[in-house]
């Protein structure tokens, strides 16, 4: 049966606030996850998510930049520490567009700041559902 598996990491574990650098605990967790990713088939999508608090720094113009940079940092780690073919990898920056909870408390904002790694073996169905351009 085709489907997907999502592995969710809270940003508090994965990154320092306002940074795309992987924290040591996150690197250790990714190291353990690499074996699972290598054994899996299908696409591996890394998505960064933020809360709704705006960020505007010299490095990051917005939460779109920050969430994308975090996803790309995870992709770099995967490519550096595994033999996973890059054709299976994708990075997505979601900013605050897919919250898990209302951004109405520090606890809920913390839930929304996260990185999700989705292992999908249903990519063929998605491609088949696209309109034919011929």
Task: Describe what this molecule looks like in 3D.
This protein has 134 residues and is α+β, with helices and mostly antiparallel strands. Helices cover 39% and strands 19% of the residues. Helix 2 crosses helix 3 (63-81). The protein has a four-stranded mixed beta sheet with strand order 1-4-2-3. The longest helix is centred in the middle third of the chain and has 19 residues, at 63-81. It has helices at residues 11-14, 24-39, 63-81, 106-112, 123-128, and strands at residues 4-10, 43-49, 89-93, 114-120. It is built from five helices and four strands; from the N terminus they run βααβαβαβα. Mean pLDDT is 89; it is low at 125-131.
List the helices and strands and how they pair.
Layout: E1 4-10, H1 11-14, H2 24-39, E2 43-49, H3 63-81, E3 89-93, H4 106-112, E4 114-120, H5 123-128
Parallel strand pairs: 2-3
Antiparallel strand pairs: 1-4, 2-4
Describe the structure concisely for a colleague:
The protein has helices at residues 11-14, 24-39, 63-81, 106-112, 123-128, and strands spanning 4-10, 43-49, 89-93, 114-120. By secondary structure, the chain is of the alpha+beta class. The radius of gyration is 16 Å and the shape is globular.
